[in-house]
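ingest -> validate -> predict -> emit
validate: passed (alphabet ok, no gaps, 141 aa)
predict: started
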Amino acid sequence: MKNIRLVMSKKGFDILKAFADDSYLYNYIVNNPSELWEDNILNNPDVLQQYDEDIFFSKDYINEDDEYVLKDSITDVKAKNISYYMVLIDSETKELTVYKHLFGRVNIPVINVPINEDDFTIIEKLENLSKELSYEEEMEA
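emit:
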């Protein structure tokens, strides 16, 4: 199974969700539009935190269909020149797959790391943020 960590603008995230809805339907992953809200993983995060105009999204244990939709949808977002940093982390093999388009950015939002920083440092900060926010949610529950 894979985990996703994503940083992008709130507006970009809304566009990503729309592209994902289309992909779920077009690829027959979801057969009925009324099922989209429940099945689109972007609507069901483990962590979703907004910072001014940017968001941090985290979801663990996504399936292969969700991974396909994310890859398909992030390509459409890139074509719209929307900035993002997304990493898929394979929890078994520890393989990291980074998708990034940091158009017009100097720092990666939310974690305030320069865009020219190495991916391992960025991913470590995203993982730490995900754990910290998950822990805070558990403490509040």
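Residues 2-140 form one domain.
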